[in-house]
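Before the break, one more example. Copy the sequence into your notebook; we will annotate it together after we see the structure.
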Amino acid sequence: MSTAYPPVSLTDEMFDFHALLKPEEIEWAMKARDFAQTQIRPVIENDFDTKYFRAELIPQIAQQGFLGMHLKGYGCGGASAVSYGLVCLETEAVDSGWRTFISVMGSLAMSAIYKYGSEEQKNHWLPQMAKGEKLGCFGLTEPHGGSDPANMKTTAVRDGDGWVLNGSKRWIGLATLADICIVWAQTDEGVRGFIVPTETPGFLATAIDGKLSMRASIQCDIELTNVRVSADAQLPEAKGLGAPLGCLNEARYGIIWGAMGAARACLDVAIERSRTREVFGKPIGSFQLTQAKLADMTVEYEKGVLLALHIGRQKDAGTLNLTQISVGKLNNVREAIKIACEARTILGGDGITGEFPVMRHMANLESVRTYEGTDEIHQLVIGRALTGLNAFS
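Here is what the structure looks like once it is written out:
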């Protein structure tokens, strides 16, 4: 595969970001870009309008090697953190929902098994999930308050040689399609994780309707009513709340990159529109105010991608300060939303239509801003690191 990084916009050409990447990282990015632009982009506006999750693309995504690509062994790709980040960027440049799918599978469900599962669990589930033959979801968030997992109400009680789970989960991606759910529950020994087959009696997943964001993907409510699992369903190394939070950090890392993909897509169409839309007898891109907007958006995009790369290099080196994940998620999602909003102004009234992807990205990014930690949660993480004082409670 060629290592030439194909230009998408003048921003990419001016930025020369590829000069900072290794050949294998560029290859992963090119593969993701080609797949996203040719297989997802042509249908995503219609899928968003009709609230359709195009599950028939899952085998193709698995064939590209994107599912659990950053995990080593067990049929997974063993790619670098930076390579995984670039795949997230290129996928979210088309739609946040598809980056979320890759994240739910690889950063959440598969990572939970990889980090905390037994060898038997890893060998059984991970190769099937990497091939897309089995799908997983991640049951942590609860209806009463997603930002307070320490107040988890779902319980798992020992019963003979197994466990009985009861409780509710909300905003669980992929749950109606998943074969297994990683359910986090309170036990008499603290928070523990369980691999729960979704066909188990008492497990009920219901897709959430009425969404104005993430319409081309699936998020669900889950009800657990006397769900009985065997002892070997427990993830043996998942002990305490730090276990699910460790998976969330993997997902947050992908968001740092993905949000910049959405930002780039909005910037791309704003640049193109500024050249072709004419007012007062000339292209709007020839006006100083429009150029100032494009310049400011480009600066924030470049800063965000450089921040993502820095965090990715730290992750690959094993030196990542987890507070940096909060810095990246807070900054990049917030700036991506600003870029999308500013791009919409350049598109004028047409910017609110499905002819352009900007309003779809804006709506999706509002969800991205909320999940895996709201702005406020990440501000408190950063504030705690700066002051040494805990303001969470």
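The chain has eleven helices and eleven strands. The first strand starts at residue 72 and ends at 73. Try to locate both features in your own notes.
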